[in-house]
Amino acid sequence: MVLDRFAQRGKHGHLYRKGDAVDDATTGGPRIFAVANQKGGVGKTTTTVNLGACFAELGQRVLIVDLDPQANASTGLGLNPRQLDHSLYDVLLQDVPMEDVIEPVSVKNLYVAPASLDLAGAEIELVPAFSREQKLKEAIASVAGDFDIVLIDCPPSLGLLTINGLTAATEVLVPIQTEYYALEGLGQLIRNVDLVTRNLNPDLLLSTIVLVMFDARTKLSGQVADEVRDHFGDKVMRHVIPRTVRLSEAPSFGQPITSFDPLSRGAIAYRDLAKEILGVSDET
User: Fold this and answer.
1) How far apart are CA 247 and CA 135, in angstroms?
2) What span, in angstroms and rounded, lies between the C-alpha atoms of 113 and 4?
3) How close are the terminal C-alpha atoms of the chain, in Å?
4) How far apart (Å, rounded) are the C-alpha atoms in residues 176 and 199?
5) What distance lies between CA 116 and its chain's CA centroid?
6) Which helix (H) or strand (E) holds 211?
7) DSSP 3-state of 104
8) pLDDT in tens, 73-113
9) Could you give the CA distance from residue 70 to residue 120 in angstroms, rounded to a whole number?
């Protein structure tokens, strides 16, 4: 099993407990979320990294798949893409097994399939590839039994990488910034999700919308939140993510907010959100 390789010590010297390894009797597939929004700077990576850490805190075995050539999810969890032997690029285009790419991080139960700058060229290189839209789905399927949750950090575009993310996922999670133009471009994303559902992945469901960068001091944040809830109803999570300096500082230290400042408003908000998504009581 993939995680057995990290049961004692990870590739980069991190110490792990035997409890991190997966029991061979584990059955059932993971929940696979494509974290997507074609607008940049709306908190996709922040949400992917911090939700992943919170799920891991709750005992879930979590894989973050960094599908963005900027590799922010990888660096935000303490990895240096330039120092890795392989990245997701090698999985998609060089047929390197997914299990050879997965890296442990300092958070127990949390693992990353890192990106690299090479992914920037993957959009073009994938065009002539056989089953080009299915590459990531096949890669994740090969390690799916090792994880409870997979979070795919999609790039801020609707190209072949994002299509791969949507084809591999079972659910779409959309972070929406509570600012002006919040819904701009969302219609196109929803149309693309519908196209993928009809043509490539009939199991895909737009299940989760998260309001991020919420500023309770402004009327605009409340108005945008109300508008999003009117549009999408119970797909919108009750718990919102506040705009905080600590959330923006954490990635520069290569840590999720739960490690960087575990008692901060951002850490508490992401923990509450993770529990809501999993259907776990707030008292847990």
Assistant:
1) 33
2) 16
3) 30
4) 26
5) 16
6) strand 205-212
7) strand
8) 999 999 998 898 899 999 999 999 999 999 999 999 999 99
9) 8
